[in-house]
Write a structure and sequence with these properties.
Layout (H helix, E strand, L loop, with lengths): L6 H13 L2 H8 L3 H15 L4 E4 L2 E4 L1 H28 L1 E7 L1 H8 L3 H7 L3 E7 L13 E6 L8 E7 L3 E5 L1 H7 L5 H5 L10 H10 L15 H9 L5 E4 L4 H6 L3 E2 L9 E7 L6 H18 L9
Parallel strand pairs: 3-4, 3-5
Antiparallel strand pairs: 1-2, 5-10, 6-10, 7-8, 7-9
Helix pairs in contact: 1-2, 1-3, 1-4, 2-3
Pfam families: HTH_1, LysR_substrate
GO molecular function, one term: DNA-binding transcription factor activity
Protein name: LysR family transcriptional regulator
Length: 304
């Protein structure tokens, strides 16, 4: 076994090769990008081969790196399948990875309903922006917001909802600043962003308004944090009728500049080989109930 490279270096290389980004690999592995870079560099030194090359803002696999990466992926999948088989003999689990806002605001209050349907299963709901490697057994299913369906072979991507995206603010904020009558009025208000200003820029373009100056405002990374900041009167956030259904219904958030803009949908992603798995079928039904309820509240709200 002395010829085997360190597993931590192999994990770092596999993640970088799959994501095309040292920073994204670090976020997935829970370490800094400098640590990931050091592991990959040490692996290249040990193998005396160049595995990665710069590409745009990220990296790409070299020819040697692509060949080695394919073998590493295959080896990790073998280990993962062995772990899954062993774990299934000891306990039954349903491991779900989900975007934090949807998990915290919409799924968590109803998790008991799913547990009741799956007596004998341990339900694991993991709020995360990272995407699991389903083939390696990191999760049983993923609930994610995508611009288009996940088309990777061997997977199913079931569209749960394609909600409208629209700006929201609190009643107190609207009382102080007034409700915008046009999109030009809207962009002059304090805007709240997620990881960058790109989402607001894309929404405005789709709504028919291209700002002449750069957009500004705090970046809070998560959709539910942006919506919560809007609820607290900090500015205007983009949200949808699924995530903010209860707040819109209660009037703690108000929809501004009603539009029919959509920017993707919520998908349930799982392995096609497990399509008839009873636990996944129960999960589909549970999600259909939740999205059906919130979808009924997703109609445009006229201004007061």
């Amino acid at each position: 076994m002395s010829r085997l490279p360190p597993l931590i270096a192999l994990r770092a290389f596999e993640a970088v090769g799959r994501t095309g980004s040292v920073r994204a690999a670090g976020q997935e592995l829970g370490v800094s990008h400098t640590v990931v870079s050091r592991h990959v560099h040490n692996l290249e030194t040990r193998l005396q081969a160049r595995l990665l090359a710069p590409h745009g803002r990220g990296v790409e696999l070299t020819a040697e790196g692509a060949t080695f990466h394919a073998e590493i992926v295959r080896a990790f999948e073998i280990i993962a399948q062995a772990a899954i088989a062993l774990g299934q003999e000891r306990r039954r689990t349903l491991d779900i990875w989900c975007m934090p806002g949807l998990a915290n605001w919409r799924l968590l209050p109803r998790i008991g309903d799913l547990a009741a349907q799956l007596a004998g299963h341990e339900i694991i709901l993991n709020p995360t922006l990272a995407r699991p490697n389903l083939e390696r057994g990191e999760a049983d299913a993923e609930i994610v917001f995508l611009a288009a369906a996940d088309a990777r072979p061997g997977r199913t991507a079931e569209l749960l909802a394609c909600p409208r995206m629209f700006p929201v603010a609190s009643p107190g904020f609207c009382a102080r600043f007034g409700r915008p009558e046009t999109l030009a009025d809207l962009v002059r208000l304090p805007l709240i962003h997620e990881e960058s200003t790109a989402q607001w820029a894309a929404w405005l373009a789709a709504a028919g308004h291209a700002p002449h100056t750069p957009l500004h405002g705090p970046c809070l990374w998560h959709a539910h944090l942006a919506a919560e900041a809007a609820r607290l009167g900090q500015g205007v956030a983009l949200t949808n009728g699924i995530l903010a259904a209860e707040e819109l219904h209660a009037g703690t958030l108000l929809e501004l500049c009603t539009s029919d803009v959509t920017m993707g949908g919520y998908y349930l992603v799982a392995l096609a080989a497990r399509d008839r798995d009873p636990a996944l079928r129960a999960l589909r039904g549970w999600l259909a109930d939740i999205f059906g309820e919130t979808g009924a509240k997703n109609a445009p709200v006229p201004p007061n």
